[in-house]
Amino acid sequence: MSNRAVLEVIALDVEDAVAAQAGGADRLELVSDMAADGLTPTRATFAAIRAAVDIPLRVMLRAADGFCAGSAEEVDRLAAQARALRAEGAEEFVLGFLTPDGRPDLAAIETVAGELAGCRWTFHRAVDRAADRDQLRKALADLPGLDTYLTAGAAGGVEEGLPVLVAEAARRGEPGYAAELLVGGGLTLAHLPVLRAAGITAFHIGGAARPSGWTHPVSAAAVESWRSALA
To answer: What does pTM read for this prediction?
Structure first.
């Protein structure tokens, strides 16, 4: 297996996607509406980005800000969006839902993930809001396709969560800990030495790829600087 680090970049549109690929991104997370921390993009947006780049795309499945899935009707609508994106050719996804008390919402997760036909998917930063991270991981361990956790180690971001990330990396292979750690959420270049020393090889950036702010597109040069740092 290659030790080359994976660099995933958030993309909102074709301009972002093309710049991220040019800068050396290995994979994109496709979202809409970063004011709500990333919601499901339209089928048309996915299709346009898929036509513009040739690196893997993970598509967000999330209907509203926060980590609760909402009503059964809202979950069904999200499942329908997943079916539509699958029909458009999407093969990788991002999702994750908690109950109001911070437990994994298995009914919602299984309903939406059940539309993915075994496609690979990431459980996103809802894990950082879970009442019990270990319990969540073990509860989800056997779900088809789950191969990644996007996490900062803590709700407050990577700086706060570094000890958790290092500890979880050391548990790789234990029940509930087979999925890859994809570190993101306040991630900076200064965090990389500790994370790489812990054996972590997958990293996720959003704002760091946009030095001028979220109202500006991804900077290929900013992505390239991360790619170089991860070489």
So the answer is: 0.96
Identify the pLDDT of residue 11.
Answer: 98
Buried-state track 154-169, b at ≥16 Cβ within 10 A, e below 16? beebbeebbebbbebb
CA 168 to chain centroid, in Å, comes to 17
Six-digit token string for 30: 């496709």
